[in-house]
Design a protein that fits this description.
The structure holds three protein chains of three kinds. Chain A contains twelve helices and 15 strands. Chain A is α+β, with helices and mostly antiparallel strands. Chain A folds into three domains: 47 residues, Uridine Diphospho-n-acetylenolpyruvylglucosamine Reductase, domain 2 (2-Layer Sandwich), CATH 3.30.43.10; 109 residues, 2-Layer Sandwich (Uridine Diphospho-n-acetylenolpyruvylglucosamine Reductase, domain 3); 105 residues, Enolase-like, domain 1 (2-Layer Sandwich), CATH 3.30.390.50. Chain B has three domains: 150 residues, Aldehyde oxidase/xanthine dehydrogenase, molybdopterin binding domain (Aldehyde Oxidoreductase, domain 4, 2-Layer Sandwich), CATH 3.30.365.10; 175 residues, Aldehyde Oxidoreductase, domain 3, CATH 3.90.1170; 320 residues, Aldehyde oxidase/xanthine dehydrogenase, molybdopterin binding domain (Aldehyde Oxidoreductase, domain 4), CATH 3.30.365. In chain B, the strands form eight sheets. A seven-stranded mixed beta sheet of chain B has the order 3-5-1-14-11-12-13, sandwiched between helices. Chain B has a five-stranded mixed beta sheet with strand order 9-17-16-15-10. In chain B, strands 18-26-27-30 form a four-stranded mixed beta sheet, with helices on both faces. In chain B, α14 packs parallel to α15, α15 crosses α16 and α17 crosses α18. In chain C, β1 and β2 form a beta hairpin. Chain C is globular. Chain C starts with a strand and ends with a helix. Classes of the chains: A alpha+beta, B alpha+beta, C alpha+beta. The complex binds flavin-adenine dinucleotide and FE2/S2 (inorganic) cluster (2 copies). The site of flavin-adenine dinucleotide has 28 residues of chain A, from β2, α2, α7 and β10.
């Protein structure tokens, strides 16, 4: 087993200065459920882990309008937060489906995003909520849409010495409803073969879908929004035909690969099925 | 049936308290002072010539005590076909081939040393498809392996499995309907939660002690004794001590290269050497259930009477030979004897490839064969326009029948099992709707009274009773979690009339325990149980004899219960058991109460034609499932699961249900999701992330039904139940899926993708 | 470089020197010789290594040892009472046939304990979810689920 050092800084400032000091030799660690596994599999081999656990200002869930979730908030905390369940139910569901209780007790939201796996559980819900991420380094702070945070499998907009501080969620417009669907081989402890989030805003009087957000996971190099499919239903009264078309469009917009979990054909097919299903569920 | 005090009771497993408190010691937990750690370097290629191995860097690493390769060890051949060696020289034939090994003072150093070994290879063309490997001109896995009439080099093993009974051509002619299909089954692995491992240690006189996980202590002892001879240590002794076993399921039915490597390292370093597999090694370097191609034809009359069964199989043997190559001997059983079939033919070939080599795995070939037979029975029933339930009842085995393979069916509760499943599933109501929900069933036959696959099918027991009435039972049997320890204690307690807590079962040390052929073929309750019962009977005679002297009552009138001996006719005449024992012991010419018994069941080895009464009695069962299939995703949801088994008698219903639930869970995995995926010979899913076994959220509620047929040969009427629980699961599920959506998947596992593809194919037709 | 870590283990305060790359599992099994906690995969997939940290179930194989600083860790050895009495969950596992080879058992019992501490009367679905990160190859889970139900009814 390869050895490493492990530092536990006391403040974000200290984290940033350590990152500066050690450069590529160091790696941040949150819950460690990705980082330690990758280290054991020799996919990464840092000399040093810099722990984010226990650092003040990273594990809050707060805000009345804009909701701020600290990067170190665990999936368990998200799953069990009444605030999130009420206001951002798709995120609550997604976090509740990630791994096992043991994993959720330590794995963090920030870690899930920074690993940038195409199948990242929380990405599709956060994409349909149009989340932003707040990044910080010694050079300063910036806020960017989550959508531009993901660059490729395992690749993000994070610079080498930058830390993801928090995730920001604007409340969706009133009368918004959605669904999160995860297709796996097992009912628990499974990575998504395909995951889909849909969020629709319906005019209560006319029933017209005024706004649609559709995001997909595990079917492209990053989690993606499918605007082409959103456009098909936005501004329209939804019927079977349109829903089917949206599903078809999503299916053709994504670019899945074949791997041990599924073939690209199956994934594509499932995008259509799940998008339709999620739209229907959002309507009920 | 007679009521018993200990037999038939839900008695907790003897070592459950140790296990729930974390006190049980597994091989992982065991340490010996001065112990070194061994690690193995595996091949980087599926098929290559070894040109050079440079171990100099590894040897220089501080803390490294020995580095072995195939070039600096004596020649040891093992495996029943004697084609395997601990470390490979000249060439490697699969990715799991062991090329070098290291012993070091800690596992990290050993690992580091392994990474410093440089091996030069010259690549050879590989072959991964057994049908390709059979062809003339295919790459040869072992160039010196000769076969066929001309004794030419070949990949086909010289084990011509062939069973012919009656005349299948005649049977075919007499058929009104004939179904012919190809089925495929793939590699699945045991996934014991405790990985493999051992510790080897030599004493100053070169006798070996090996701490092991084996389920065949006596045969492993013999294998290791042979290895010592090959190492020039003729006449040296082997003592095998079992740690608590973290699951076995057939995986520990043979000896493996890593055990010989530990022995060689221990001998070279003169220190104890421990090897423990990582989970990754457990996945790629232990032997799975084999992949096979099954061509099967069955026929029936208009009324559904079966006319013939004709089966041809090609088994992927992998690069070396373990018991996987002998599973056809068990596949013959369902092929010849599941349901009444007058004409039977079975031919199987085992073929070397550059894949991983296979082993026994719960059911020993039976699940594979039964998948093909029972899936096709439904197709045949449909051709004949008969409800598969009626079809099965018409052909069901019955007591007293002699099957084409000359099995003598004694007790047989197959009909009762089928009926029970049909009733619980509300079969007539729920079948045949094709509305996305469906029901299916499949049955099984398995050996239930031992299986004479070796020269002896026996097991020895020694019982001694101490001065206080504690009964020590020393058995050859192996407990690997299934509860052999407990069932044997119950049988002895029942026979002797003592309390279960007064019985202590020892089963872990070949220096103490008598011979046993091994924990296979669901034979332990039956064979070790009978052995223990007979030994207990002898002990009881002695007990009553000494009690008769101290109580002045004839033995026939005496009884033992709750640590008391008393007269059945004179209530005044009674004495605590301990007192009686001490009286007998501490007197001139004193006597200790003890006895032994070696029980070898009256079953037969199969003859040259593979016929004979392999087992004293046979176990039957039927599984029934109700499923729901999502036609949009192809996902299968099991709504109901019924498992009915003829168990003779449930000696311990709680442990028995545990075997059934556990078996069915594995069977559901086999049917729907488990698969060791080999890509050009390399296991690409050596972890629980991508080798999926069921979680607690996936397991349906399983109802276990026991049919008690009180077998006259079994201990208190019991038959074996270790393996049957997963034998009919996959075909029962496949049949239910067919009933739900009208598509039949003929290769395992039945994935959502395959279902969806089949549905599409059906629609486009 | 070795570092000192201080935490509570099964109610007792301890302080030890460790190499920082070690996992909590390695330290409790190898340094502290509490072998009741098992390693089934080392990758967070099987749950055999489950222990409680501040009452929460976690995979000790993935848990960096320095992160237990100041925390309270419960392993299977800490469940049994001082006089040797089994915890009700342990007793229930024994009595309901929830133990076969036993390799998954310590982790399973601790996951169940974390559940019952939070939800004393869980539904069957909650039980199944709570132990879905604990793989068992022997039992098919049925008797484990029953054992947890039975313990919750006491
Ligand atoms: C058994 C198991 C099951 C799993 N199941 C799922 C699943 O179902 N779905 C799923 O999506 N994932 C799953 N995962 C993956 C993993 O648990 C999640 O991605 C988790 O959210 C990662 O969080 P963490 O805190 O453990 O990340 P860590 O491992 O601590 O970090 C992950 C990466 O992000 C970086 N990082 C972490 N925090 C920050 C930060 N604040 N700023 C900058 N960089 C940071 C680290 O340097 C590292 O590269 C599973 C993992 C395991 C072991
Ligand atoms: S050993 Fe930790 S989860 Fe398997
Ligand atoms: S009892 Fe063997 S793994 Fe659970």
């Amino acid at each position: 087993m390869k050895k490493f050092d492990y530092l536990k800084p006391q403040s974000l400032e200290e984290v940033l200065s350590l990152l500066n000091q050690f450069g590529t030799k160091a790696k941040l660690i949150g819950g460690g459920t990705d980082a330690i596994v990758m280290q054991r599999q020799n996919k990464i081999s840092p000399d040093l882990f810099i722990s984010l656990r226990g650092i003040p200002g990273l594990d809050h869930i707060e805000g009345n309008g804009l909701l701020k979730i600290g990067a170190m908030v665990t999936h368990r905390a998200i799953e069990q937060s009444p605030l999130i369940r009420e206001r951002f139910p798709l995120l609550s569901e997604a976090s509740g489906l990630l791994g096992s209780v043991q994993i959720r007790n330590v794995a963090t939201l920030g870690g899930n995003l920074c690993t940038a796996s195409p199948s990242a559980e929380t990405a599709p819900p956060l994409l349909v909520y149009e989340a932003e991420v707040h990044l910080i380094s010694q050079k300063g702070e910036r806020r960017i849409p989550l959508e531009s945070f993901f660059l490729g499998p395992g690749e993000t907009a994070l610079e080498q010495k930058e830390v993801l501080k928090e995730i920001l969620l604007q409340p969706p417009p009133p009368n918004s409803r959605g669904a999160y669907l995860k297709l796996g081989r097992r009912k628990a402890m499974d990575l998504a073969v395909v995951n889909v989030a849909v969020l629709l805003t319906l005019n209560p009087k006319t029933g017209i879908c005024e706004r649609a957000r559709i995001a997909l996971g595990a079917v492209a190099p990053t989690p993606i929004r499918v605007r082409e499919a959103e456009n098909i239903i936005e501004g329209n009264q939804l019927n079977d035909e349109l829903i089917r078309k949206a599903g078809e469009m999503a299916k053709h917009t994504c670019s899945p690969i074949s791997d041990i979990r599924a073939s690209s054909e199956y994934r594509r097919e499932m995008v259509g099925v799940l998008v339709e299903k999620a739209i229907r569920q959002s309507l009920t | 049936m007679t009521e018993f005090i200990n037999v038939g009771k839900r008695i907790p497993k003897s070592d459950a308290q140790e296990k729930v408190t974390g006190k049980a010691i597994y091989i992982q937990d065991l340490k010996i002072p001065g112990m070194l750690w061994g690690k193995i370097l595996y091949s980087h290629h599926p098929h290559a010539r070894i040109l050079n191995i440079d171990t100099s860097e590894a040897e220089k690493l501080p803390g490294v005590k020995a580095v072995l390769t195939g070039y600096n060890i004596p020649t040891i051949k093992f495996g029943f076909y004697k084609d395997n060696t601990p470390l490979k020289s000249n060439k490697v034939c699969s990715y799991r081939d062991e090329v070098a090994a290291v012993a070091a003072i800690d596992p990290d150093i050993a690992e580091e040393a392994i990474n410093l070994i440089k091996v030069e290879y010259e690549l050879l063309p590989p072959v991964f498809d057994p049908e390709e490997a059979m062809k003339e001109g295919a790459p040869l896995i072992h160039e010196d392996h000769l076969g066929g009439k001309e004794k030419k080099p070949t990949n086909i093993l010289n084990i011509p499995w062939k069973l012919v009974a009656g005349d299948v051509e005649e049977g075919r002619k007499n058929s009104d309907y004939v179904a012919e299909n190809r089925f495929k089954v793939t590699w699945v692995t045991h996934c014991c939660m405790g990985t493999s491992g051992c510790i080897a240690q030599f004493d100053p006189r070169d006798n070996l002690t090996i701490y092991s996980n084996t389920q065949i202590p006596s045969l492993a002892q013999r294998d290791f004794t042979e290895a010592l001879s090959a190492m020039g240590l003729q006449g040296k002794k082997v003592r095998l001590i079992k740690a608590t076993i973290g699951g076995a399921f057939g995986s520990k039915l043979d000896t493996y290269p890593y055990e010989y490597i530990a022995i060689l390292l221990a001998h070279r370093t003169r220190k104890p050497v421990k090897i423990i597999f990582s989970r990754e090694e457990e996945f790629f370097a232990t032997s799975p259930r084999q992949a096979a191609i099954i061509d099967i034809a069955q026929g029936c009359k208009k009324d559904g009477t079966l006319t013939f069964r004709d089966v041809r199989m090609v088994l992927d043997n992998g690069a070396y030979t373990s018991w996987g190559a002998t599973t056809p001997s068990v596949m013959m059983m369902p092929i010849s004897s599941l349901y009444k079939v007058p004409h039977v033919r079975y031919v199987a070939k085992c073929v070397y490839t550059n894949n991983t080599y296979s082993q026994a795995f719960r059911g020993y070939g039976n699940p594979q064969a039964t998948f093909a037979i029972e899936s096709q029975i439904d197709s045949l029933a449909e051709m004949a326009g008969i409800d598969p339930l009626d079809f099965r009842l018409r052909n069901a085995n019955t007591p007293g029948e002699v099957t084409p393979q000359r099995f003598k069916v004694g007790t047989c509760g197959l009909r009762e099992c089928i009926d029970a499943v049909a009733q619980r599933l509300d079969w007539r109501q729920n079948r045949g709707k094709r509305d996305g929900r469906g029901v299916g069933m499949a049955s099984l036959i398995h050996v239930g009274g031992g299986a004479r696959v070796y020269k002896s099918d026996g097991c020895g027991t020694i019982i001694k009773v101490d001065d206080f009435g504690t009964v020590n039972v020393i058995t050859g049997a192996t407990d690997m979690g299934q509860g052999a320890d407990t069932v044997i204690a119950q049988i002895v307690a029942e026979e002797l009339g003592v309390r279960i807590q007064d019985v202590v079962v020892t089963h872990t040390d070949t220096d103490i325990c008598p011979w046993d052929v091994g924990a296979h073929a669901s034979r332990t309750t039956f064979v070790a149980g009978n052995s223990a019962k007979m030994a207990a009977k002898k002990v009881k005679e002695q007990l009553l004899e000494v009690a008769s002297r101290s109580l002045g009552e004839v033995p026939e009138n005496l009884e033992i219960r709750d640590r008391m001996v008393f007269s059945k006719i004179d209530p005044e005449k009674k004495s605590p058991l301990g007192k009686v024992l001490r009286a007998a012991h501490y007197t001139t010419g004193g006597k200790m109460v003890m006895a032994e018994y070696f029980y070898d069941p009256p079953n037969e080895n199969l003859d040259k034609e593979f016929k004979g009464n392999l087992s004293v009695t046979y176990a039957y069962g039927t599984h029934g499932v109700e499923v729901e299939v999502d036609k949009t995703t192809g996902q299968v949801n099991i709504l109901k699961y019924i498992a009915a088994h003829d168990v003779g008698r449930a000696v311990n219903p709680m442990l028995l249900e545990g075997q059934v639930y556990g078996g069915a869970a594995m069977g559901i995995g086999y049917a729907l999701m488990e698969q060791l995926v080999l890509n050009n010979g390399k296991v690409i899913n050596p972890d629980f992330r991508d080798y999926k076994i069921l979680t607690a959220s996936d397991i349906p509620t399983i109802e276990a039904i026991t049919i008690e047929t009180d077998d006259p040969f079994g201990p208190f009427g019991a038959k074996g139940i270790g393996e049957p629980g997963l034998v009919p699961t996959a075909p029962a599920i496949a049949n239910a899926i067919y009933d739900a959506i009208g598509v039949r998947i003929k290769d395992l596992p039945i994935t959502p993708e395959k279902i969806l593809a089949a549905l599409k194919g059906k629609d486009s037709k | 470089m070795k570092q000192t870590v201080q935490f509570k283990l099964n109610g007792e305060s301890i302080q030890i020197e460790v190499e920082p790359h070690l996992s909590l599992l390695q330290v409790i099994r190898e340094k502290l010789e509490l072998t009741g906690t098992k390693e089934g995969c080392g990758m967070g997939e099987c749950g055999a290594c489950t222990v409680l940290v501040d009452g929460k179930a976690i995979n000790s194989c993935l848990f960096p040892i320095l992160e237990v600083e100041g925390k309270s860790v419960t392993t299977i050895e800490g469940l049994i009472e001082a006089d040797g009495t089994l915890h009700p969950l342990q007793r229930s596992f024994v009595e309901n046939g929830a133990v076969q080879c036993g390799f998954c058992t310590p982790g399973m019992v601790l996951s169940a304990k974390a559940l019952l501490d939070q939800h004393p009367k869980p539904t069957e679905k909650q039980i199944r979810l709570a132990i879905s990160g604990n793989l068992c190859r022997c039992t098919g889970y049925i008797q484990i689920i029953r054992a947890i139900q039975a313990a919750s009814e006491q």
